[in-house]
Each structure stands twice: as structure tokens, then as C-alpha cells.
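Researcher: Here's a chain I'd like modeled. Treat it as a single chain, no partners, no ligands.
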Amino acid sequence: MEGSADKPPAEAGGKSKMMIIAVVVVAILVVAAIGAALLMSGGEDEEKVLVVATIDGNPESLDPAVDYETVGGEIIQNVYETLMFYDGASAATLKPMLCTAVPTVANGLITDDGYTYTYNLREGVMFHDGNEMTSEDVFYSFARALRLNDPHGPVWMVGELLIPDYYDYDAGEYLASGEMDPATGVPMDAIYEHIWMKDDYTVQFNLTVAFPGWNYVITFGVGSIISKAFVEANGGMTEDGYTYMFNHMCGTGAFYLEEFVSDTRFVMTKHEDYWQGEANLDKVIIMQVPDPNTRLLMIKSGEADVASIPRTLRATLDTDANIRIIEGLPTFNIDFIGLNQNIKQNATEAPNTNVPADFFTDRNVRLAFAHAMNASLLIETQFNGAGIQPNGAIPKGLFGYDEDIPVYTHDLDLVKSYLENATFVKDNVTTNWLDEGFGLDIFYNTGNTVRQTACEMFKDGLEAANPDKISITVKGVEWATYLELRKGGAMPVLFLGWAPDYADPNNYMQPFYHSAGTYAATTSYVNHTIDALIEEAAAELDPEERATLYSELSMILYEECVHIWTVQATNFHVERVTLEGYTFNPMYSGMYYYPMDK
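Model: Modeled as a single isolated chain. C-alpha cells:
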């Protein structure tokens, strides 16, 4: 899952008096917006309202069948529910949510061969629209995701385990009438064959692969259960229906979405008929506050209960008795640089780029770029040393990680050498990219100043190889626009982060390296030998053999240099001491608000 909200660093250098005044003015405007939101709902004295100040960034979508990033993921996690969820801080232990028991072989809900999972649903669980959840809603939720089969979304993790020959199916398309074309997407016949409604409160999934992580797969947002009646009343599985669900939600969660104002805020209000009992909080307001100093003022003044504060500003918090910092816990999040092997030239978005579309198909070019990045300096200066440089897609601490895989070192001589070896023919003469030079645009999402700083470091490392002929332009783009450009292949080089969907190495190898994976598709990387090895490793049930397969894959991919890995950071959470119930779990998408109080 794509991450947008990595904690950004401080602005470099001191602030002038005029800048401080500007920050205070912005803070006043933000506080006024919060006050307005509270007044509309009855006043602060009458409600417990949790205010979160975070960086700017709009969601890709609020539809669990589509959204595959952390901004929308946090809202989905709190408005919708899955059959199971993580038990407190554990990334390994699941507890039943919309089902009554987590399936195991021992309790008879998983067959001995590992192919069939049965879920007994809770009775009396009410959606936000007042309808009771039944097996029809569970079936419908998975069916609408599979029918759409968004190639940039999360449904692959369900489809590859549930549907025979899943990767032979294309994305769902619409007829002129707006109806879903029955010849596209995953066909309903295949869905009915593999998801059974045994009765009103029992659902059975019939897998095509005996994958032991299935329970974890459907605990991700793609397994969110939506009210069938709500979707059908608003277009169903048609173009209008999917468009409507872009920013409308109807789940069973502890909160419902009251308001979403693009570029401004989300407001979630407690669901009074929630099956576990009403939340302690009446409202959660998530404010988009681009400036880190404004967020700092908000958390220190008490106008925000939680704020995204860069680690480089922590010294301003250490002496404040009203603020609590929770940090140093390991995450499975990794930041990386994507190198597009089929650049869709876009003179508007990337005006400085003058390389051919297949520039990054040359492995020498990719290796030159890898050695231009100073990941150690990035970790030291922007993360206060609280992180490691990853040696591949699989993060340290997760099964399949091999500490013997090397990392790409920062080495100007290697940058020059690899660019010199990257030869091509120009005007019937063989030349190379070091001598010829090039122009290139590299992108980050605005508001994430960690990635902005990383881009500037990357620019310095590349231009140093030939200052007269290599020109790099750093461009910031708003998050939702950034995701659209990524899907369209318009960005030659992009910085992103990956947060896990489920705690298994396949959740890293498949998206980044399988030709049908999210980022392999983004960067146009196709290697069918690698595809076969990824599928073999995912299906292997023997842990030792599986670990060996992932080690071999990691070494091959290190040599391929498809992506450049920059940092695997620990967590850094800043809250007021009046807040209670926050839990960090590396598998959460942002915060889970139901247990929280103030």
C-alpha cells in the first residue's frame, strides 16, 4: 500500500519574523476551521472531539475496491470493518471482528488441505444505513472488487489466491450504457464458484492456492464489508455506482464519514448503533496542515491532540510536559525510488526530461542511479539515524529477509563508470550517457519534505557525475495528482513509500517485481522468469525452502536493480498527554480510533 504521510523534516535554516507571523496566521485560520466544524456539530463542550493535524494529501479513493494508499486507507480502516482485525499491537495475532472466530484447522474452519476457509458471521451487526449485515453483503463486497479488478488497486491479493488463472483477466470496463461489460473483469461465474453463501450468516471461500496467509490478506482494506443495499441504491456495479463510492461510504465501523472537504479535512462521527458499543470519541477531525511549524504550534497549544511532527523538530517537544512521544518501534514501511522503464513523455509535467522512453531499460543506467543516492546521509539527517537502508523489497524483521544481501553504496566513481558503460548510438556514432549528459524530472508528493530532501540529495549525486551536462529538476505534486501520474507512467523517476497490506514477503515481491504487480506495472518491468519464481515462493508451504527461495530472489533482484531502496524507519508519534488508548501496530493504516479517548 502506498504511503504518503511519512513524517516530514524541518525546513532548513532559521525562520524570519515575517515567516513566524505567517505561520501564526495560518494556525489561526486552521483553528478557526476546527472551531467551525465543532460549532456545526453542537459545540466542543458537548462532545469529545479528537483533532489530528497531518500533512496535506487527498485520498486516491474512499472505495476499498480501489484505494491503495494510506490517506484513504486510514478512513477506510475506521469506517469499514473486515472479518478479522489485528489484536492490539500484534502484527501476527488476529481477532474476530465481523466473524465469530478466526478460522484455523484446529477449529474446523480451515480444511486440512488449506484450500477452504469458512467464516461464521456475527448476527445483529448494523451498517450505517440501518441495514443488518449478512452473507450477501460479504459476497457482494468481494464480488464488486473482483468485477472491477482495478489493476492499480489491492484486489490482486485476493484474486491471485481465489480465482483460477487470475492474471489472465483484464480490468473491468464499461459499456456505453455505463453497465459493466460482462466480457471484462473477473466473471461472476468464477466468483460464485469460489465464494459461497452457505446461509445468511456463513460464507465459504474456496482458494485455488493453499496460501497460509489468507486470513491476513482479507484483513487488509480490500476485505472491507460494504452494505449491498447502499451500493445498489446508488448505481450498483455500474460506472455511476463505482463513481459514487469514490467519496461515499457505508460500513459497520465505529465511525461513519460525516464530511470530506478536499485539501482541508475529514470528519468522522461515532456510529451510535455500533455492535461493540459506542466509541469514547464523538468525532475525529483529521486536518490537512501542510506547514510543519503550524502543526507544531497546534500540538503545543492543544488545538490538536495528535500531529505529524518531523523528527528534526523533536527538541522543541522534549521539555513540554503536555506532550507524549511514542517512538522507536519497528515498522515494515520502506521508502524507495522507482525508475520508469517506459516513460510516457509529458512535456507539461516533465518539461526537463529529454531521455528516450526506454532510458531505464539499460541496467547500467539503473545501477548508476542507485549509487547516486546517499541513503546513509538521508537517514542520518532526516530520520535522526532512526532507520536502516533496506537491501531489497523485504523489510528487516519480516520472514524472508536475508541480511547477507548487499545495499547500494553512495559512490560517485561507480555513477560515472556505469553511465560510461551505458552506451547507445547517436548519429551513427557510439556514445554514452556520461559524455552526452541528459535532463530528467524527479517527483515527490508535496508536503512530504523528507522525500523532497531525498530528491535534492539524489539530484546532487547525479549532477556531480557531469555538472555541465546532467540536469535534474525536482518537482512536487499533490498526492492525488501524484497517484494519477504514477498510473499513467508520466513520471520518469518517483519517490514513494510502501506500507504492508499483510505481513508476508509475497506482499512485497508481487507488487514490486511481478509483471502484474502495482509497481512493476508502473515502471513497465516485465520478467516472466521472475514472475514464475515469485509465484513458486508464494505457494511454497515448507518454511525453510520458502526462505531459501526468497533469498535467491532477493539476490537476483539486487543485481537487476529495478528499484532503489532508501529507508526503513521506526515509528514517531506525537500526542497530547490527555489522549488515551493509542496503539502502534505496523499493520495499521494510520490510526485506529475506536479504543482511543481523551
